[in-house]
Write a structure and sequence with these properties.
The structure holds 3 protein chains of 3 kinds. By secondary structure, chain A is mainly alpha-helical. Chain A contains 5 helices and 4 strands; from the N terminus they run ααααβαβββ. In chain A, strand 2 and strand 3 form a beta hairpin. The termini of chain A are far apart. Chain B folds into 2 domains: 165 residues, no CATH class; 154 residues, no CATH class. Helix content of chain B is 60%, strand content 0%. Chain B is globular and about 80 Å long. Chain B starts with 16 loop residues before the first helix and ends in a 15-residue tail after the last helix. Chain C is α/β, with parallel strands linked by helices. Among the domains of chain C are: 182 residues, NADH-ubiquinone oxidoreductase 51kDa subunit (Rossmann fold, 3-Layer(aba) Sandwich), CATH 3.40.50.11540; 134 residues, no CATH class. In chain C, the strands form 4 sheets. Chain C has a 6-stranded mixed beta sheet with strand order 1-14-13-17-15-16, sandwiched between helices. Chain C has a 4-stranded antiparallel beta sheet with strand order 2-8-7-4, with no helix packed on it. A 4-stranded parallel beta sheet of chain C has the order 11-10-9-12, sandwiched between helices. The longest helix of chain C has 57 residues. The chains are: A mainly alpha, B mainly alpha, C alpha/beta.
Amino acid sequence: MWTAVFTIALIALVAGLGLSFASRRLPSDASDLVEQVNELLPQTQCAQCGYPGCRPYANAIVDGSAGINLCPPGGDSTVQRLATLLGKDVIPLVEHVETSVAVIDETLCIGCVHCRNACPVDAIVGAQHFMHTIIESECTGCELCVAPCPVDCISMKALT
Amino acid sequence: MEFARRESPYWSARVAVPALMLQVLAALVPAAIAHVWFFGPGFFFNLLVASIFAVGGEYLVMVLRKRPPEVALTDFSALVTAALLAFSLPSLTPWWVTATGTLFAIVVAKHLYGGLGFNIFNPAMAGYVVILIAFPMHLNLWIAPRIGDIDYQYLTILQTLKFTLTGILPDTLGFDAVSRATPLDVMKSGLNGMRTVSEIRTNPIMGDFGGRGWEWIGNFLAIGGFWLLIKKIIRWHIPVGVGIGLLLPAGIMYLVEPGTNPSPGFHLFSGAAILCAFFIATDPVSAATSTRGRLIFGFGMGFLIYCIRTWGSYADGVAFAVLIMNMAVPAIDYLTKPHIVGHSRRGGSP
Amino acid sequence: MTAPTYDLGKLHGGLRLPGHKLASTSAPIRDVPIPEQLVLPITQHVGDPAHPVVGIGERVLKGQLLAEPDGVLSAPVHASTSGEVVAIEPWPVSRRHGDNAPCIVIESDGDDRAIGRSEAASDLTTLQPEELLAQILQGGVVGLGGAVFPTAQKLMQARTGEMEYLILNGVECEPYISCDDMLMRERAAEILSGAQILMHALQIDACYVVVESDKLDALHHLGDAMGELGDDRLVLKQVPTIYPSGGEDQLVQLVTNREVPSGGLPSDVGCLVQNVGTAAAVHDWIVGHQPLISRVTTVAGDGIVNPMNVRARIGTTIADVVKFTGGYAEKPEHLILGGPLTGKFISTDRVPLVKATNSILVVFESSFEGRELACIRCGDCASVCPVQLLPQQLFWYACADNETKLREFGLTDCIECGCCDLVCPSHIPLTEDFRMAKGRIRELADEKARADRARRRFEARNERLDREKQDREAELSRQKESARKAGPAVIAEILKRKQEKSEDD
């Protein structure tokens, strides 16, 4: 019997050493993983997760400092896909938001370009002192343009 | 005129699960009658106990799971599990042994995994293994078949019933007087005792292929199995796989060294080989799903049965072979995905 | 002249189904009289809606253009009889299960006068293939097997590749539907003539006319017509009566043993498939100068008193068609346009019969039974799937909403034939689940595309800001450099000027 115990213990030891060697010495694809996580995020760059953009949030997820449930625009499906990619548990999303786009009230707009500079995907067009407008097909609903507007002319319209 | 909405197809499905299960039970009836004919009414009592605990256990578990019990009970799968377990046990089995095995099979192996359609392991075999480990002595209490020329004291119906209910044998008969080795036991102990196959086969319990009485049950199980094949309740891939997996190594070893290796016929008609091939391995939930996968699944099972019988310490390896191949099913399914029409054959989408 | 059944490819799976076609094929095609009102949807084809060219109050003649094709993939709509356009308004249509879509409503004047045609070329050999295709477009011909893909565009797309075979689909494998069978019996010569026109348009030398082996009358009539025509490019082929051999990709595989690539078309493997009804419609337009204004439709099912095949003008409401056949049986529950396996439910019989309506089926709910149980992994669904998918796995992943696995296991290749539904002992509504899963995959793909575009724009914006910053810094250092080279005197001069300026303000 002792032969058997000794043999199994030896196999376990060798296998364990082999695995720890592999995990330390073989190249790990951390940057590759950040790229993969970023691919799953909705790219609204809205900072609702607390990070200044989707890539910083992806970095935080990969190094473990952020949970996978912080992205409201991504919805439950993004949490699910992140969980599958990273082998983590599915946790409830912090907040559910519905998809919306920003709309400029043209009667109030003064052409100050504050909103245009705030938009992370350049979805607002308009030169200084000229009317601004939002390209609805490019707007991600991140709401970063709402606050900078000095005349409060931007509102969010839900997409049905 | 207005009409109600309904999605296609507008056609009735041709089969239903309860009907399938009833057909399987019907196919077992000839073998059940043969079993009672050769080994007495004990089988019938075991079947009764197993059925009661299977149905009762399923009802309780469904209530605990807060699901409607009739959904599970009306598909008759619990009765099939009970029947297969009854076929695997000796006819002299106390009720608590049968009950333990059945309850484990239904509650743990089936419902704790999610119920019908979600279990990984064959419930009957899981229940059998629990009995094997918890009550090994009772699984040695096989009796001799009723064939007239064996010196054996057969129990009456009442004595059998008393044993099933209380576990107490009649006063004049001890445990050793009642129990007889199965043909597989005889073969194994004979080979271990360095006797040749032909010497072992002079034992009066041996018949043309397997053991007497057992062969007949095997015949009727095969008839039931072919009936299921004709009615397309089961497909040929698994039974053929099991058959080849068992008979190929048996045949090779028999041709090479007939003195110390029993014939393929012996292997086929002994123990639960035929029961496994047609009824146990073909349980759709725990078997592989693709056609190639099923052939591999059956072959692996037959091969494992042969290995355990020849080199393992158990006389019959069916239960363990089934459970081991159940574990291999996800891998088999993953590796045997069929080619999708229109996709390139070299793997991956076009 | 019997057709050969040898030399066929192999189709996996499929089911032999009871045909239920005897009742509707026991009498010749009957013509539904022109109703008082015809409702013509502007869009009766796949693609961009047509554009109306008539106004309310205008008098139109039979065969007159009512709506012209608009866009790359479009087809015209013609008046089915003479009369007055009384409205162009929303009306319940079959494309939307009984919800509304724009339609041109004509009140017939009873004269059924046809529009006069300038002498179009009736001799095909004088028409070049390109001209022929343009002509076919104007005839309003679309795929009459039910897919209603504009035929001219389908031919134009096929011309971009090397076409070897024209395959005429007379298989009609779905139960109850028998309109093609009757058409082949009564108008075999016109079908073959249409085939010849199509072959000329595509410069193809081989044509297979494929019919199920139990359609003996149709085979007989087609054989006779072929004999009379004497064109040895046309070959009659029989296939076994297995559903769904009539599907386009399945037919190509069966007849030529070639697999249509996933996401591709039969033209990718050198084949063009056309329904026999479409071929007859091409003949009617090119030779007979009659655009597509009527079609043969099967009216059948337990909810119909007298099952039969009818020829009705496009625009006749289903209610009128059923009334002509003898009406509904007592309390029917479901109205289906199409066959029992691939048809679509309609909530009202006010919808008009359109180019896509190959069959009207009326059935009762009680004929479907069975409670849905869990999948027991019996694998019967996989053994009948003509595309060799694993429906049990697709079902598993559809329940888990696992988009990657659904794609990997080929959900987008599912042809929604319904075979898996029919054999499932647990009565799982697989086809319905797969339709929903396909919708979900499309949704997720759209989301991903939007996210990718947003990310690209974000990265482009960052690059732009970086570039602007670099340009500014370069400009600043350049100015500093030139100022330093110029010497302290110039700097003092500039500062003095600045001071004077601020004193002035």
